[in-house]
Amino acid sequence: MRIKKAILTGGGRATRLHPITTTINKHLLPLANKPMIFHAIEKAVEAGVTDIFININPGETELQKAIGDGGHWGINVTFFEQTGGPQGIAHVVNEAKKFIGDDPFMFYLSDNVLLGNLTDMFDEFETSGMDCMLALSEVEDSRSFGVPVFGEDNRLIDVLEKPQNPPNNFAVTGIYLYGPNVFFDAFDNIEKSARGEYEISSIHSYFLKQGKHVGYKEITGWWKDTGRPEDLLTSNRLLLEQLEPEPVPSGVGIDETVYIDGIAHIGMGAQIGKGVTIRGPVLIGENCVLEDAEIGPNVTLSQGCSIKGASIRDSIILDNTEIHAPMRIRDSIIGKNVRLIKQDGGPEGHQMIVGDKTVIEM
Hints:
CATH architecture of the largest domain: Alpha-Beta Complex
CATH topology of the largest domain: Spore Coat Polysaccharide Biosynthesis Protein SpsA, Chain A
Radius of gyration: 22 Å
C-alpha cells in the first residue's frame, strides 16, 4: 500500500538556536531563502504524499500563515497542537493517531534537510512488506542520535537512543516509514525514558523485540540535522551549491561596475549599485539594495535587506536587515529587522540594544 499520509514536526523550542528562535519558529528559518519546513514538504510531495499533518506549539500562528492549507503544493495540510507539553517525538506521532487511522504513513522531522529524494525509499517499503523502514546516514559522531545495532548479515537487531559508546557511526535520521496498525500499538507498550520522554528509538526497539520486519535504507547524497547554528549554515551552503544558472529578472538594477563570479540568483526589485562584488553561490532576495559591498560565497539575503560597505560570506541574513558599516561578516546568522550601522562612539561609547544569548565578536 502506497504511503499517502505524513506527519511533520513544526513544534519545539529550538533552544540551541537562541536567540534567533526566540522570535521565529525554527521551522520557518530560511535555508536557501526558503522556510526550512518547505524543503520537508517538497520531499514528501515528491514521494507521493497527499495529506500532511503538522504538529505545532500551543498558540502558534506563524506556521499556519506561511504554509496555508497545502494548496500551493496541491495537497491537504492539517495542523494539530501537541497536548500536555513536550513529551518526546514518539508522543508527537501518537497525537496524530486520529488523522492516520489504519493507514501507512511517514514521520518526518522537519529540521532534517537532505539532498536526495525519498521516492526510492517509498518504493522499496511498498514492495518489501516491511512494518517499518528507517533512513540511516553515516556521521562523524553518532552519540547525539538514535544508533542502529546490526547483527548477522547486517540485519537490524536494535536501536539505541543517544548511546555514550555507540557501536557504529550510523545515525537514524528523522525520516521514518510505518505500515498500517503498528506504531500506535507499540506506543501503548513503551514507557518514558530517563529524561522523561517517549523516545522514537523505544518504538523501533519494541518492534524488533516483537519480531516486526524493520528495514533500513542509507540516505544517498547528504543529510543534515539542523539543530545547531553551524548545521544551519552548512545546510544553507549545501543547498546553494545545487543552484542552477537563471536569468536576472527584468526590473533589477545592476550598475556597470558590478562584478559577478559564479551563480547568483537575484530577486525582483533588487538594486545592485556601484562597487559591488558578488561571488556565488549567492541568493539575493527581492528588493535588496547593495552598494560598495562584497557578498559571498554561500550567502543568502532575504527580502528587503540593505548592505552598504560590508563584506559578507557563509552567512544567512533575514528580512529587512540593514548593514551599513565597513565590517567583515562570516559564518553568521542575523535575524529580521536588525540594524548594524557605523557610528563614531567617541568617548561616550556605542549604544547597543542586544537580546538574550546574542553573540557579538568585536
